Amino acid sequence: MPTLAYIEGTTTIAMALVAVLRYNTLQKDMRILSVFFVLGVANQAAQLYLSFQGIQNLYLFHFYTLAEYILLMSVLSLWQKNEILKTILQYSIPIYTIVWLSAKMSLENPTLFDNFTSSLSSLIFIAVSAYTLLGVVDEAGENSVFRDPRFWILSAMLLYYSGGLVFFAMSNAILFYAKPEIIFAWSLHWGIGIMANLLYTSGYLCKPPR
Length: 210
Prior knowledge:
The chain is built from seven helices and no strands. By secondary structure, the protein is mainly α. The chain is globular, with a radius of gyration of 17 Å.
C-alpha cells in the first residue's frame, strides 16, 4: 500500500482520537462532528479488513455517504444564523435520504462506487460550507477567526469536497485504469485527505478545553 495511504489513515485516526479525548468539553455541534470522525475510522477499518479477506467492500461507501450527509448537514444547520436556511438544511436530510434510496434502486450498483450520490452530496457541502465560511469570517470582525473552530472545519470541508469532487464523479471509471494511473488518482485523493484531516484537527485544538 502506498505511503500516502498510511499517512492519510494515521491522520484520520489521530483526528478521531483528539475528537474523542475532547468530547466531554465540546458543544453539541462539535460532538456530532466527533461521531462522524469516529465513524470514518470504523469505516476505513472495516474496508481494510474486508479487503484483506478478499471480500467486496465497496458497498460500505454507499452507507457511509448517507451517514456522512446526515451528520455533516446536522452540524452545518446548527451554524446557520438565518432560521429559514437552517430549516432548509434540516429538511434536506430526509430529502437526500429519499434520493439516496432511489439511487440504490436504479442508478447505483452496490459493487461499485456510489459516484452519483457522493458527487451530489459533495456539491451541496461545497456550496453550504463556502457560504457558512464567509459568514464566520464576517462575524469574526476584529477578533481572530483562527480561534473559531468553525473556520478550520469549514475550510477542511471546502478543501476536501471541492478537491475530491472530480474523483468521486470518476471513481468507477478509475477502477478500470491501469494500475499506475489508479495509484496516481488515489494518491491525489489521499493527499487532499491528509490536508483536510490536519485542518479538522486544528478545529479541535484552536481553543483550550473548557
